[in-house]
Amino acid sequence: MGAQGRLVIPARLRKALNLKPGDRLVARQVGDSLVLERREAIEKRLWAMFSHIPKEVSLVDELIAERRAEARREDVE
Question: What pTM, to 2 d.p., does this model score?
Fold first, then answer.
């Protein structure tokens, strides 16, 4: 690691992973390790996780409705 915290990914790894200049990577800590992952891979995983939710459903609206219902129940008690 350089003085400014920059890392160089060895050429053999860049080639094996088909990494190109300009590829967007996300760094995250997993235990004592640093994991680099393509941003696109993370986006695909997130879309897959939430793909079961119909597009016409607003999770924000549902959350607000739930919170308001809780507040009304608390006021009654």
Answer: 0.55
Q: What is the torsional sign of CA 34, 35, 38, 43?
A: negative
Sequence-distant (6+) residues with CB within 8 A of 41 are none
Cβ atoms 27, 9 nearer than 8 A: no
Mention every residue, 6+ apart, whose C-beta is less than 8 A from residue 34: 27, 28
Segment 22-77, tens digit of pLDDT: 999 999 999 999 999 999 989 898 888 888 877 777 888 889 999 999 998 888 87
- SS3 label, residue 8: coil
The sign of the torsion formed by the CA atoms of 18, 21, 24, 25 equals positive
Would you give the DSSP letter of residue 3? Answer: T
Cβ atoms 58, 45 nearer than 8 A: no
